[in-house]
Amino acid sequence: MRDLLFKDFGWKLFSLLLAAFIWLTVHKIIEPRGVAESTSGMTLTYDNLPVLVVAAAADMRDYRLLQTTVSVTISGPAEVIGKLQANQIHATVDLTDTSTVATAKQRVDVAVPSGVTVISVRPESIGVIAPPPKH
User: Fold this and answer.
1) CA-only gyration radius of the chain, Å
2) What is the CB neighbour count within 10 angstroms for residue 31?
3) Cα separation of 87 and 80, whole Å?
4) d(C-alpha 112, C-alpha 90), whole Å
5) Could you tell me which residues come within 8 angstroms of residue 76 by beta carbon, excluding any fewer than 6 positions away?
6) Which position has the higher pLDDT, 36 or 60?
7) How far apart are the C-alpha atoms of 100 and 54, rounded to whole Å?
8) Which listed CATH number (3.40.80.10, 3.30.1360.30, 2.130.10.10, 2.170.120.30) goes with 40-129?
């Protein structure tokens, strides 16, 4: 009876570990992804993110923002949010359309990596001071 358990013990242990590895791999593949992502979602807020002005290359005016930073709240899977850096979130004010530059406030656009969703941006719009065009 003792030989039945301990004979070739190394091979038996190896077989057990290999079977467990295969089972975990198959289980991970067939697990429904929608359920896993919805239960592991995280929300995070980044304060004081700098806002960049995007203007046409030919427009050499020195635009000034009344507020230079925003607060952005994002959401996404825990593994993505855990690795996310503040420098991967880009807040911009688009001034390429010269017809909208004269308006009091401009909308803040936020670009984030795939898998991440923008929940809110505070403030949503920022005042821009546009000096007269230089000739």
Assistant:
1) 27
2) 9
3) 14
4) 7
5) 41, 42, 84, 115, 116, 117
6) 60
7) 13
8) 2.170.120.30
Which 3-state string (H, E, C) describes 77-105? EHHHHHHCCHHHCEEEEECCCCCCCCCCE
Give the helix/strand (H/E) hosting 133.
Answer: none
Residue 135, both tokens = 């000739």
- Give me 34's structure tokens: 């929608």
Most distant CA atoms of the chain, gap in Å: 99
The number of helices, as runs of H, and strands, as runs of E, in the chain is 4, 7
The stretches of 1-135 forming alpha helices (DSSP H) are 2-6, 9-30, 33-39, 78-83
- Is the Cα dihedral 37, 43, 46, 50 positive or negative? positive
Task: Indicate the pLDDT class of residue 39, thresholds 50, 70 and 90.
Answer: very low
The per-residue pLDDT for range 124-134, each reduced to its tens digit, is 999 888 777 66
Phi, psi of 62 (to 5 degrees): -95, 85
Number of Cβ within 10 Å of residue 56's Cβ equals: 11
